Amino acid sequence: MSAGRPLPGDVVDDAIDQPFWDACKDGVLLVYRCNTCGTSYWPAGSCTTHGMSDAGWVPATGTGRLHTWTVVHQKYSRSFTDDVKIVAVVKLDEGPFFHTNLIEVATTDLRAGLPVEVVFHTGDDDVVLPVFRVST
């Protein structure tokens, strides 16, 4: 691995994502939304629907449904403990898919379509990460 290259899962500071990470510190999940058509998507150079570049960050509901997951038994980031992790893809109610971790749920209780909600956890390195749990 090259010196200075981040590990998978590490938070990388860059200008387009900074509002997202700042909002996480305040307990708010943001999505990137096209100002022309209203499509929400993860930041990209242009809208995934029609290619326009007029978009910005907006608050999300923080809810969605479990789309898929895998159980990881090995630590994959300096930000996490050595505990077993459930790495998941959540389809947010706003539309985009969000890669995350699931917490506070047994692996035997997982099923596609399970309703989930965001919570924010601060890692040992003081980075605030959005993770999801089963909706209460």
TrEMBL record:
Classification via InterPro entries: ChsH2_C (IPR002878), ChsH2_Znr (IPR022002), NA-bd_OB-fold (IPR012340), Thioester_dehydratase-like (IPR052513)
Pfam families linked to this entry: OB_ChsH2_C, zf-ChsH2
Stretches assigned to the ChsH2 C-terminal OB-fold domain: 57-121
Domain (ChsH2 rubredoxin-like zinc ribbon): residue spans on this chain: 21-44
Protein name per Swiss-Prot or TrEMBL: OB-fold protein
The organism of origin for this protein: Williamsia limnetica
